[in-house]
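Minutes, structural biology subgroup

Action item carried over from last meeting: produce the structure token record for Helix-turn-helix domain-containing protein (Rotaria magnacalcarata). EB confirmed the sequence was re-checked against the source entry. Recorded below for completeness.
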Amino acid sequence: IRDKNPNVQFQKLIGTNVPFLNAFVKNQNGELSTRVYHHPILPRYTLPYVVGHSKLAHGDWFRSALIRAVCYCSSIENFNLERIYLELTYLANGYSIFFVENNVQHFFGYFHADTMRYLKNQTMYDKFRHDWFGYMRMQYELSDKLQTFNDNDCLIHLNYLYEFGPKCQFNRQFHCLLSESFNQHANLSKDKVKVQLTTKHQHWLNSLLAREKSTCSIQ
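Output recorded by EB:
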């Protein structure tokens, strides 16, 4: 590989552990042990740079980082250490304790596992982790189905302005009303078409009131 691609740098090592990308893989007494890997050279307690509404983007990244922690950390001890590291990262970057608590509680509450945050039971953590992997498989299957609908021109994208409130409840009620209204429709039934709801976050009043300037040139 090096002869054909001199820019590719790698090392061949034989040992009981190895860091690979953002994962640390270890043979611990004959059992596979994994956790999130933080490169010692990179700065700690930093957040990714984002463009636009940083609070919203960092909230999404927080949840993604917690999901990654569940997928990577095979032991509950390593997961708790990674969770605490993420919480301290946000606090060190000026985010409030309310912001941190709200995101962490939402993460555990999604699977009705609020007590997982304070427990050290490996068996319960294994079940919680298994549920997350099952959820991810469902997401992959849903993504494939949406792609099939899109390829057949049967995917409808709808979006609405969202500031606060029970978004999931609104989406659920919308799909129920849609299914009841078009259940017998030849082209718009649930089996024939898929409606995907997304939200638009409006953060400035000016963006609602302002209008685009006309592109027509003055004669």
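Discussion: Strands lie at 17-20, 23-28, 31-36, 155-161, 194-200.
Next step: EB to file the record with the rest of the batch.
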